[in-house]
């Protein structure tokens, strides 16, 4: 199963700027509720699938390409024997991010000369596991897990991301925040209530006009208005 699409909090207009309209009604209804914040890692989506004794690796989609260096790393971390002993009943998917050198533009900020895998979600059969259970699996396998960086409302997450905060991997601004409702919830269609926000959406672009003066572009995010 591919990882479900994560909606941004707000809809975008035709220029790609955020509007003040929530992307789904559930976000507006739950905006003042408690959400869990984890750091958003700038990498490539990875699935580690183990079912009926067979181990497979995949990207965001079944047709996604994976860097050779990352595939080799996954094969070192996850062996068939290790997965069989950890999950004898099988039918589990580990969702995570492949990150590091040459993966996305800023991959070298995370790992200068290598790549790695970091876990952010687990599905066993038809069940999405809660944070505590995902942490237990990460500890059992000896793998990294995205850091829980706080809790709060949607506006709390927006403000934290707007101000920017350092990644757990070094002295650089984290890509953003992924938010999950404190209690797992689903929409009428059965989609998980989960959202994201990126620091770059708050950047104000500068430009030089024909007279050599510095101006500010009109692409200004209006999230907190």
Describe this structure in words.
With 225 residues, this protein is α+β, with helices and mostly antiparallel strands. The chain folds into 2 domains: 1-41 and 148-225, Dna Ligase, domain 1; 42-145, D-amino Acid Aminotransferase, Chain A, domain 1, CATH 3.30.470.30. It has 6 helices and 15 strands. Strands 5, 6, 7, 8, 9 and 10 form a 6-stranded mixed sheet that branches. A 5-stranded mixed sheet has the order 1-13-12-4-11, with helices on one face. Strand 14 (206-208) and strand 15 form a beta hairpin. The chain is globular and about 50 Å long. Mean pLDDT is 88; it is low at 205-225.
Give a quick precis of the structure.
This protein has 225 residues and is α+β, with helices and mostly antiparallel strands. 21% of the residues lie in helices and 33% in strands.
Q: What separation lies between the terminal Cα atoms?
A: 38 Å
Class based on secondary structure composition and strand pairing = alpha+beta
CATH C-level class of the largest domain: Alpha Beta
Roughly what is the average pLDDT, rounded to an integer? 88
From the alpha-carbon coordinates, what is the Rg to the nearest angstrom?
19 Å
Assembly of the depicted chains: single chain
What's the number of extended β-strand segments? 15
Sheet with the most strands?
A: 6 strands, mixed
Identify the CATH architecture of the largest domain: 2-Layer Sandwich
Number of helices: 6
Sum up the overall morphology in one term.
globular
User: What share of residues is helical?
Assistant: 10-25%
Beta-strand proportion: 25-35%
């Amino acid at each position: 199963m591919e990882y479900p699409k994560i909606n941004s909090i707000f809809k975008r207009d035709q220029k790609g700027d955020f509007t003040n309209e929530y992307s789904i009604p559930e976000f507006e209804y739950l905006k003042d509720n408690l959400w869990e914040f984890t750091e958003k890692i700038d990498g490539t989506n990875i699935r580690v699938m183990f079912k009926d004794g067979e181990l497979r690796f995949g990207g965001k989609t079944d047709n996604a390409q994976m860097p050779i260096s990352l595939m080799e790393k996954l094969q070192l971390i996850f062996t068939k024997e290790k997965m069989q002993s950890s999950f004898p009943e099988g039918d589990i998917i580990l969702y995570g991010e492949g990150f590091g050198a040459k993966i996305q533009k800023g991959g070298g900020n995370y790992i200068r000369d290598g790549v790695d895998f970091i876990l952010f979600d687990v599905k066993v059969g038809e069940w999405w596991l809660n944070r505590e259970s995902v942490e237990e699996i990460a500890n059992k396998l000896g793998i990294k897990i995205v850091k829980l960086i706080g809790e709060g409302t949607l506006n709390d997450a927006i403000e934290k991301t707007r101000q920017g905060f350092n990644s757990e991997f070094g002295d650089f601004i984290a890509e953003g925040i992924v938010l999950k409702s404190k209690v797992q919830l689903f929409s009428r269609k059965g989609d998980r209530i989960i959202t994201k926000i990126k620091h770059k959406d708050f950047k104000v672009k500068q430009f030089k006009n024909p007279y050599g003066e510095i101006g500010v572009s009109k692409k200004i995010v209006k999230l907190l208005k």
